[in-house]
Write a structure and sequence with these properties.
This protein has 157 residues and is mainly beta. The protein contains one helix and eleven strands; from the N terminus they run E-E-E-E-E-E-E-E-H-E-E-E. The strands form three sheets. Strands 1, 2, 3, 4, 5, 8 and 9 form a seven-stranded antiparallel β-sheet that branches. Strands 6-7 form a two-stranded antiparallel sheet. Strands 10-11 form a two-stranded antiparallel ribbon.
Length: 157
């Protein structure tokens, strides 16, 4: 079950590239400026305590609607083109969408590094979520480790 945690912000017209199963296949999608929903898959589940934690786990997902600028779906055999040459502009102008996927620690890290209002910041969280750093001691080598997390804000009971 996915749930919205914020927005992916596109500040200027940007071309994103969808990659496909065959490494040579791609689709370039032009996306206009706007705020697009950002979704999380789940919260971390603590098996030992048999309860859900406030930390977001799994992937962060977003879909950016746009227009196809170019694509390449040339038929290939062992990586070599087969048949007639593919026209990379044949789908230009048709609707398309970029399908984005990243990890919660990547989103949290970018939010922490790029303060609100920074032109490089591309994520905005809803008020009930936050990006934090957490430091702990590794049980393996007893070194301090710092990580970034997205989590649901604690509520006072």
């Amino acid at each position: 079950m996915k749930f919205q945690i914020g927005y992916y912000v596109v500040k200027k017209r940007t071309v994103f590239q969808n990659q496909f199963e065959t490494a040579a296949w791609y689709e370039n999608i032009a996306v206009e400026p706007g705020k697009y929903p950002l979704y999380a898959e789940r919260f971390r589940y603590n098996e030992a305590e048999r309860k859900e934690e406030n930390v977001i786990d799994g992937f962060i997902l977003f879909q950016l609607p746009g227009v196809i600028e170019s694509d390449n779906f040339q038929t290939l055999f062992h990586g070599c083109p087969v048949g007639s040459c593919y026209d990379t502009s044949k789908n230009a102008g048709k609707p398309g969408q970029y399908l984005g996927q990243t990890y919660p620690f990547m989103v949290a890290g970018e939010i922490i590094i790029n303060p609100e209002g920074d032109e490089n910041r591309k994520y905005e969280l809803l008020p009930e979520y936050e990006a934090i750093t957490k430091t702990f001691v590794s049980p393996i080598d007893e070194k301090k480790v710092t990580t970034c997390q997205l989590r649901r804000k604690e509520t006072a009971n």
